[in-house]
Each structure stands twice: as C-alpha cells, then as structure tokens.
Amino acid sequence: MLKFRIFWGIFISSLVVMLIATLSVIWVSSGISRQKVRQELEIYTHNLGSIIDRSGIDTLSAIKVFPFRITLIRPDGIVIFDSGAKASEMGNHIKRKEVQEALIKGAGSDVRYSATLSVRTHYFALRLSNGQILRCSYDVDTVFSGVGTLISYLALIVLVSAFISCIAARFIARRITEPLIHIDLDHPLENDVYDEMTPLLERISSQQKHIASQFEQIKGQSEELSAVTSNMTEGLVVLNAVGEVLSINNSAMHILGAENTCVGHSFLAVDRSDYVRQFFEDKSGAQSRSSEFDRDGKIYKVFFNRVGSESEIHGYALIYIDVTASRQAERQRQEFTANVSHELKTPLQSIIGAAELLESGLVKDTDRQDFYRRIGRQGHALLGMINDIIFLSRLDEGKARESMEDLDIGALSREVIRALEDKAKAKNITITLEGSCTPFFGIYRYLYELIFNLSENAVKYGREGGWVRIILADGKAGECVIRVADNGIGIPLADQEHVFERFYRVDKSHSKRSEGTGLGLSIVKRVALFFGGKVGLKSESGKGSEFTITLPRKEDKTTGA
Ligand code: ADP
Asked: What is the DSSP letter of 266?
C-alpha cells in the first residue's frame, strides 16, 4: 500500500540519516578532543621540562598528582622515573620513536594503539638540558571503545529520534496519500490537490475525454451493428475460438429456441444437433460448411464459417436461413410438373383415341360428327389448360407484361356476365351484378380472369334454376372488394383450405363432367396476391359458396405491381 511504503521510506531514511549524523558528530568531536589532548600534552611537557631544568629532578617527587603519565629516560634509554609504574621494571626505551626524535631533534611525538586495551596512547618527548628525555603520555579511548559508555545515550537518542521520525513519517505519508485517496477521477480537474498533481490530472482528464469519445464511437458502431443484426431475418450467431457465444441475434434465438443468457456460454449448450458437433469436430480445415435441418415445421439452412487462417481460428460465424418457402416452392414445382403432364395426357389421349378410330374407318358415318366435336372439345380444353398454365407461370414471375390502367370493375363484371350468358341459360341460372366500386388501378386481363373464373365456377357448380351474384363494394380502407356468391352445391369444410391449390378438385367425377382443370381458383388467388390482396371463402355443402376478394388500392400509380 502506498501509504505504508511512503511511511517506511521516510521512517527508515530519516533513521539512517540520523544515525549517520550522530556517528559523524561523535567521530568529529573525538578527533577534536584528541587534538586538544595532544596540544595540552605538548604544553605540559614543555612546562614540566623547564621546571626540571631549573629545579632539578627532585621536583618530580614533590609533585603528587600528574595530569599525564610522566616518564624520565636517560640518553641510553634506561627509565629512571615513571609516574605510572616502577622504573626498574620497565624496559629500555631507546628504540621508541618519540624518544629517538627527541634525542635527535630535541622533541618527538608518537601515537600508539593497543588493540587488547582498545586504547590509543599519545606520547610527547622532550630533551632536557642534561640530555635526559622527559616523556608525557596520555591514554585516549578510541571512538569504538567509547561506544560502551555512549551506547545508552545513543540508544536513547535513537529511540527518541525513531519516535519523532515515526510521527513525522506518518504525518507526511498521510498528507501525501490523503488527497490521492480522495481524488475524484471522474472529474479530475475539480480536485483540490497539491500543484504537482495538476499536470497528471490534466492528462487524466484529456485521456478520459479521448476514451469517452472512443467509447461513444464504439457504442454507436455496436448499436448500429446490433440494430442491423436484430432486424435481420437470417439468424446470426458469432462464436469465439473455443465455441462460446459472443453474440446471437433475435432471429437465431427464435430459430434455436435460445435466450440472450446463452451469451458467454458454449454454443453446444444451445444446439447439440449432430451437424453442430460434426462441424466442430471437422478436421478437414474447410473454411465453410453448410447443412439443412427441420425445426418446428420449417426447413433451415445453416452456414458455418471459420473466421481466421488455417493455422489460427479466431472464431466462428453461423448464419441460419429459412429455406422453407423455397423448398416448398421446389416441391410445388415438382408436383405441378407431374400434375401438368398428367392433366395434359387425358385430353390428348382422348384426341389421339378419337383420331385413330376415325383413321381406322371403324366409326360409322353417323358418329363421325360426334368424334370431330369430341376432338374439338378436348382440343379446346387442352388449349384452355395450356393458357391457364402460361398465365399462372407469368403470375409466378411477379412481373406483368401488360400495362396498368384504371379499371371500371362494374363494366368488366358485365362483360363476364355476357360471356357466361349461354352457360347460365343452359342451367337456368340468373347472374346479377350488385353494388359498385371506384375504379381499380390494375390490369384488365388479370381482373377479367379473376371475376370470370369465380363466376364460371359459380355457374358450373350452381344448381339448376339457381342464382349467382357479383357484388362490388369499396372496403373500409378504400379497398376494392369483389364478392361472388351462389346457391350451388357448396364446398365441404375439409376441402375449403385446398381449393386454391393448383389442380385441386373437390369431386373428381363431378369436376370431370363439368370440364374443370383445377387451375381456376389458383389463378384467382395468384391474381389477388399479385395486387397485394387476399382471398376469402365462406361455403356450406349443399347451400352455396361466397368468395370474397379484397384488393388494396395502390397509392403510387406510376410503377407496376
Ligand atoms: P375447376 O376447374 O375444377 O373448377 P377450380 O380451381 O376453379 O377448378 O376449382 C377448384 C375446385 O373447387 C373445383 O373443382 C370445385 O370442386 C370447387 N369449387 C370452385 N368453385 C366452386 C363453387 N362456386 N361452388 C362449389 N364448388 C366450387
């Protein structure tokens, strides 16, 4: 912790400084005192020497107390007097440095150190007028030998200093750290701290602004991305290198039945399907793979993509596409082709059969006309079916070759009624037109086919002496509403949802008799869808049917449907 580091730093360094200072003071003061001793020793030796020169050697025995140790040495080195020891027991001093110097120069000095006693002895020797050497010496404790006596003082000084430096260190550490602890990094420039901090706080502030702007930018980008991905109809899942979910969009959650909480967890916890495991276990190094699976009645195609190089995988991107519609369309196309070939075969076989019989000459002359009529009728049926198929495939393309115009649906309905007049008369059926609607912007042929197919069915499946009503109206939202009702045979409930399918017929035997192709209502539905409309059916077996077509009006009439 910073506070403790500052505290210990100050405390220890102040302690060290204080120790060094104390020892230095001791060292210097002991040096000064040694110097002083040397001077005093020299002065005393000179004074004593001149007293002995004047009054003789006996003066020494008169002196009771010597401030220094006094030794009197003959010129041959024999000690004749010593104030600290018996002169006779002392060795010859001729070789002593101070004695030698005094003999030669008149005065000499030396300092000798005794390691055993830890004492330093200062000597000063002076040659007297009678040639004898007067030597004064003084023992001085070394700095370290004095430590013993100093130690208690030193310990006291150290203790007091340690206490003071401890308090001072605590105070300084707190003063330094306190403003740092309470610093408001969210608003760096609003802090009232010491001046030295200002450049740092300014840098923090400018970096914060920089980070904030970058964060805003990243946030914006990620919001944009999630807005795009969440509105995607395709499912998108992004995984990291170890297969954990980084992001999953709404569509993918819906398809996989997962929730947002799966983010951060292994994708295998979301989808344990074989195709997922196979992909993760795939060692072929393929960058992308695809697979199809069924879920909740829908067919999905999933594309797995490895993100990264062959040697290093950074993650995975999984894209789910709902291919139900295209697969169904494919299936419908296959069924349609099979149905078309089957439906075309029947009239063709009948034409070929009749032609072969005519050719063989087996047909009686009286029957020939009948055969020609049958061939003609079947030929027309064939042509009608082919036209219907061509019309339907054009509608499937979704693009109209014909131009759009404002159509009077009433007039168009009257034309249909006219075209069906004979058929209706043959069954004694009355066709009426009721109501009206504002002109509809559409394609004449498409609308004609729509109303014609509905009305023709109403006549075809109408009862003898029955009625057919074409009712026109404008819907609540301004749509064009066309209703075709009859009191014919009706459609059983089970068949109602299928009658708009291609080639679907309720009663095959009856339909055959009534020359149906099974394409009429699918054309009606396709036309309605082409204009963005819808079809409705209300029917009851034996009572009649009512088809309702609702076509929205286009706001913009400049473009096609
Ligand atoms: P079709 O050429 O057989 O009439 P559609 O597609 O027009 O083919 O009609 C499909 C089937 O719906 C018909 O075969 C018929 O059984 C039934 N259907 C259509 N319109 C009516 C109606 N107005 N009354 C009773 N049944 C109908």
From this structure: B
Model confidence, pTM? 0.52
The H-assigned helical ranges of 361-441 are: 365-397, 409-419, 421-426
Specify which of 17-21, 197-201, 445-449 reaches the highest per-range mean pLDDT: 445-449
Asked whether 485 lines ligand 1 (CB < 6 A), one says no
For ligand 1, whether the C-beta of 496 sits within 6 Å is no
Ligand 1 centroid to residue 527 C-alpha, Å: 16
Nearest-CA residue for atom 2 of ligand 1: 516
CA–CA gap between residue 454 and residue 210 (Å, rounded): 70
Q: Which of 340, 487, 505 to mutate to test the pocket of ligand 1 (most atoms within 8 A of CB)?
A: 505
Which tokens is 491 given?
A: 């459609």
CA of 516 to the centre of ligand 1 (A): 8
**pLDDT tens readout for residues 97-138:** 999 999 999 999 998 887 766 778 899 999 998 899 999 998
Are the CB atoms for 256 and 250 separated by under 8 Å? no
Does the C-beta of 511 come closer than 6 Å to ligand 1?
yes
Q: If you measure from the C-alpha of residue 511 to the centroid of ligand 1, how many angstroms do you get, rounded to a whole number?
A: 8
Q: Is the pLDDT of residue 193 over 80?
A: no
Closest Cα to atom 13, ligand 1: which residue? Answer: 505
Q: Which residues contact 210 (CB under 8 A, 6 or more apart)?
A: none
80-94: string of b/e by CB count within 10 Å (b at 16+)? eebbeeeeeeeeebe
Strand, helix or coil for residue 73: strand
How far apart are the C-alpha atoms of 484 and 546, rounded to whole Å?
6
Average pLDDT, the chain: 87
- Ligand 1 pocket, residue 235 CB under 6 Å: no
Q: What is the pLDDT of residues 390-410, one digit of tens each?
A: 898 888 887 777 889 999 999
Residues 453, 520 contacting (CB under 8 angstroms): yes
Out of 106-120, 222-236, 539-553, give the one with best mean pLDDT: 539-553
